[in-house]
Structure formats: structure tokens, C-alpha cells
């Protein structure tokens, strides 16, 4: 009957049944596929364009679900974390339909965990990522790549909370899963995080070796965005190892790639790192200039609050060394407000230590002692 009516009305039978013709469905599916490919290739402007204006009927939940996941990654890249969570909330509703598996449900929880991490809701992120990992594992379906990514991000959460043993365990398992798949891009992502875990543990030579390996893998894949990020980390590691000239070379390369790929956030991180190197070299006006530039590029990016806080610390110290104490105080207060949002005692302690140094410069030893004590207590694992 639908076919007969459709023939006389000049429309597809599917249009009478769903409100969307087969041609419209195919067009929407092609747009979603383009968006997914763009996200995979980190071409987020293209992804946003492909998703623009798409509408979905209740009879095509699979298309809407895929579009929402692509949209969430795209919005997250552009610093629209709140809107990304809204898209993921809708995706989570859809994932409860019978046509979806526990792997799709796990995928939604994983992406929600990533966004919560970016918003510094670390406990919430850990809970979501743990649930995602358990759901994927219990599904019995092949999803080791997803499990590896979940563990990689949960490791970041543990590192933020200074639980380096948990961070290391998750990274080791994530790497085992990725190597089992021979997925070299996922291996690169996990190795990147393994390098950071090693650096936080004070193993700088191992961290640099891991960073070099990740950079080579990114380069082999043509992943310019992550290669630039890896160069930024290599710059920091070389600086810690006393190789300032190599550090500057790597950081300038990272900045150049960030400009090439149009990533203001990555450019800001490279400039902020350069500011720290120049601060260490006692080039205070240049450090001030670069820290201010980094903060301009990161304006309004709540997903980079850690980098904002770090840049504010560098700026404050550059001002302090130029005897602009009142300006330094204002910036250190802003840094404290930023870094306390991170649920990280070590980040907050950096701000209190800087404020203590300012108090010393002003000759207020009592205030400095109180701030240093506060920083030390924040880093203690046992308090009673």
C-alpha cells in the first residue's frame, strides 16, 4: 500500500513511513561519514561544516548517534565543552535503544569522561572512564582500541591527582592493548602519555626516549597536530636536562606547526613553554611578552585552565624579577584561582610557592613561611 501511494504521490515509500526519503537518508549518511572522517583526520572545520544543518528523524537513530559523537569531538576541539556534554547526553539517551551495543554505550561514557577531564571534574571523569572500561570489557565484543583510549585518559586523571602508580598501570595496559592490535597511532598516543608519566616521576631520560618514539610514530602517520604537541613536550624535557638551545629549537618548531594547523591552543602552549625557558635564562621582558601572548591565545578556554595557570605563574615571576611587585601579586592571585580549579594539589602548591617568593621580596618572612608551609602540606600524602 505504501509503495502504491508513494508511486501516485511521486515520493519514496520510505518518505511516507519515516518522513525522510531514501535519497535524503543517503545524503545525511554521506554527510555524517564526511564528518567522522574529518574528525579522525583532525580537520575540525570540515567536520563542523559537514554537520551543519543536518536533521534526523526518530527512525534514523543510528545516524543521529554517529553525528552526535562527531559533533562532541568537534565542539570539544573548539573549546565548547558544555555544548559537547549536551550532545553526549543526547547520545547517551539514544545508546539505550536496543539496536545499540554496550560498545556504543561505552563510547559515549568514554567521551563524556574526556570532556569532564577537560573541565577539571577529575573525580567525575574517573567514574565515567571506569564505567566505560568495565562496560566495554564485559561486552565481549572486539573493542581493544576503545579500551586502550579509555585507559590512556584515565591515566591522565590519575596523574592529575598525583597517583602516579595508578597512572603507570593504566598506561602499561593501554600500551599492551594497542600493541596487540598493531595500531601504531594509538601506540603513539599512549607512548605520549607514558612519557609524561615518566617525566612526572623524575625519569627525564626515559621520558625523552618515549617522547622521541611518539614523535616518530606521529610523523610516520602525518599527524602534524600531535607531532607539534610532542615537540612541545620534547622542548620541555630538553630544558629540564639542561639543553636550553635544543629546547628552544623544538619549541619554535612546535609553534610553527601550531600556526600551520591553525591551532591557537597548541600555539599558546608552545609560546608558554618558550616563556618559561626565557624566564630561566633571565630574559625577563621576553618571558613577560611571551607569557602574555600565550594568555591572549588561551582567553576563554576553560579546557586549558592548567596552561593558563602555568602561563600566569611565568608572567608573575617575570614581573617579580623586574621589581613590579604589585603587578606580580595580581597575576599570582589570578594563577592561584586558575590552578585551584584543577583538583591538583601540586598545581595549587606552585601558586602558593610563587606567592611566598613575592612575600620574601617584600621582606614579609612570616607571610612567606605560611605560604611555603601551605604548599608543603598540600603535597603531603599523610597528615595524621
Condensed summary:
The chain is an all-alpha fold and 384 residues long. It has helices spanning 2-9, 13-18, 22-40, 44-51, 61-77, 81-95, 102-118, 122-139, 144-160, 164-181, 184-200, 204-221, 224-240, 244-261, 264-280, 284-297, 305-321, 325-339, 345-361, 365-378.
Structural account:
With 384 residues, this protein is an all-alpha fold. It is 80% helix and 0% strand. It has 20 helices and no strands. The protein has helices at residues 2-9, 13-18, 22-40, 44-51, 61-77, 81-95, 102-118, 122-139, 144-160, 164-181, 184-200, 204-221, 224-240, 244-261, 264-280, 284-297, 305-321, 325-339, 345-361, 365-378. The protein is elongated. The relative contact order is 0.05.
- State the order of secondary-structure elements, H for helix, E for strand: HHHHHHHHHHHHHHHHHHHH
Number of helices: 20
What class, by secondary structure content? Answer: mainly alpha
Any idea what the radius of gyration is?
24 Å
- CATH topology call of the domain at 263-384: Serine Threonine Protein Phosphatase 5, Tetratricopeptide repeat
**Low-pLDDT regions:** none
Basic shape = elongated
Query: So, the CATH homologous superfamily of the domain at 263-384?
Result: Tetratricopeptide repeat domain
